[in-house]
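Please review this pair:
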Amino acid sequence: MKRTLFLLVAALCCAFNSFAGNGTVIDQGKKQMKAGLGDYSEIAYAFAKGDKITLDAKSSKMLDRVTIVMYPQTEITRIRATKHTNKEFIVPQDGVVIIRFVADRGGTTSVNYTVTREPASDEVKDYNTKVTWEKPTDKPGPLVPVQAKP
């Protein structure tokens, strides 16, 4: 009986692993938003065109929305009124993607997240996903996200 159960569990594990993609976890973390409506927290990454990205995020309280934007302001997707999201999307062009968690509840809200990347091709599998925030050199203004230099 134990052996049969063990073989069944092993077979199921193998089956599930065969369906899994070749995604790599590029970041896991926790963000917090302070008390008050409309507070937000964001994370940013550089991705290559065609990359398949998965965001898995769990919040301690209902979030007003989660927006995923191609910098500077092209919205890729928006998820409204959620405590848990598991969203996949394809990056439309090379550049910086900003994921923004927006709170709508009083008190502190925390979000645990995991971002997974499946490269579009072998040529971009070592693509640098790190982003730095730099001051623009051509005009005054806020910091802008750019892909970190290797």
